């Protein structure tokens, strides 16, 4: 085991980690902007449905970022693929959520604490993230 290799590449690890965390925060913030209620306040008040939905969104973003990291050839490539994937994931999530909101407001259901709806929407975010992540390859 050559420890010098790890010491020489540690800076790359830190840079990729920092960029990935920033991209994760950007994606999470965009999702936050699209939510008609304060997720922070709802979670503080113990709303499990909101927590499940938010965790699903975050997990979906992580899956997408993980794929972008593995497929990127440099930092610019990582940023481009990650941003494209985040936007696509958000659009697909909104389309899917809209399809299932013909007769009811799923956002209102989650805000009211409907755990089944929160889990469903969080799960959709993870599944969409997995599909988007699978498409990022060379």
From TrEMBL:
Belongs to the UPF0719 family. Keywords: Cell membrane, Membrane, Transmembrane, Transmembrane helix. Its main location: membrane. The chain crosses the membrane at residues 13-34, 54-73, 79-100, 112-136. It holds the Pfam family DUF350. Coiled coil: none annotated. It comes from Halalkalibacter kiskunsagensis. This is DUF350 domain-containing protein. It is a multi-pass membrane protein. Signal peptide: none annotated. It comes from the Bacteria. It is found in: Cell membrane.
């Amino acid at each position: 085991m050559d420890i010098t290799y790890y010491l020489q590449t540690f800076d790359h690890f830190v840079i990729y980690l920092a960029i990935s965390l920033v991209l994760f925060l950007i994606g999470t913030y965009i999702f936050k902007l699209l939510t008609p209620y304060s997720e922070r306040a709802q979670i503080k008040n113990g709303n499990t449905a909101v927590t499940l939905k938010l965790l699903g969104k975050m997990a979906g973003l992580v899956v997408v970022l993980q794929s972008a990291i593995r497929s990127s050839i440099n930092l610019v490539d990582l940023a481009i693929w990650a941003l494209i994937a985040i936007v696509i994931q958000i659009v697909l999530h909104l389309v899917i959520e809209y399809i299932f909101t013909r007769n009811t407001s799923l956002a209102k259901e989650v805000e009211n604490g409907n755990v089944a709806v929160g889990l469903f929407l969080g799960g959709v975010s993870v599944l969409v993230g997995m599909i988007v992540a699978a498409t990022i390859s060379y």
